[in-house]
Design a protein that fits this description.
This protein has 1 helix and 7 strands; from the N terminus they run H-E-E-E-E-E-E-E. The protein has about 70 residues and is of the alpha+beta class. The longest helix is centred in the first third of the chain and has 14 residues.
Length: about 70
């Protein structure tokens, strides 16, 4: 069972693509978090130094920085 869990985590990490803006991957230094360029959600810096999709805000909310961290607010 432990082997399956590790395999699943590795597969998810490999399958997660870097977030791109105009064809360029956004680079970062972990740990880092940022709002998406359109403020519809947030990005998370992975161990490879690229931002990946962290999630979307609710339809009536947008991403805004509070104390230099992204939060979904409405």
């Amino acid at each position: 069972m432990k082997c399956f869990a590790i395999t699943a985590l590795i597969s998810a990490a490999i399958a997660t693509a870097a977030y791109e803006v105009e064809g360029q991957a956004l680079v970062c230094s972990p740990p880092a978090y940022a709002c998406k360029p359109d403020f519809s959600g947030w990005l998370v810096c992975n161990v490879d130094g690229f931002y990946i999709d962290g999630g979307d805000c609710a339809p009536d909310a947008w991403c805004e920085y509070i104390n230099n961290l992204p939060y979904c607010i409405n």
